[in-house]
Amino acid sequence: MTDWVRVCATSELLPGESQVAWDGDTAILVVNLDGDLYAVEDKCTHEDFELSAGAIDGGEVECTLHGARFDLRTGEALCAPAYAPLPRFPVKVEDGAVWTRDDR
Ligand code: FES
Q1: Which range marks the domain in which residue 33 is found?
Q2: CB of 53 sitting under 6 A from ligand 1
Q3: Among the four 6, 29, 32, 43, which has the fewest Cβ within 10 Å?
Q4: Would you list the DSSP string of 7-56?
Q5: Which tens digit of pLDDT belongs to each residue from 32-54?
Q6: What would the pLDDT profile of 9-35 be if each residue is shown by its tens digit?
């Protein structure tokens, strides 16, 4: 179990925005969807491509490499060629900042 990692100030993650934080070797994509914060691994489960390079729309992110889409709230893979869900991570707001961690 690792410590929490500071993502950014809350003012830097407004509704519709996203940030990437690193916890050790794990890239974590943190998104603000209509005021609710979610964190998933920033790594497509198809071929490990960084999802943060893709477009986020309607609570989904599309991988720019082969077009797989994921639900950012649940991590669920929504279409081929990805089938495995994204690992999800906890998020908290404390001291005016957003925090996450790889709790696997
Ligand atoms: S690496 Fe994301 S769809 Fe292939």
Answers
A1: 5-100
A2: no
A3: 6
A4: EEEGGGS-TT-EEEEEETTEEEEEEEETTEEEEEESS-TTT---GGGS-E
A5: 999 999 999 999 999 999 999 99
A6: 999 999 999 999 999 999 999 999 999
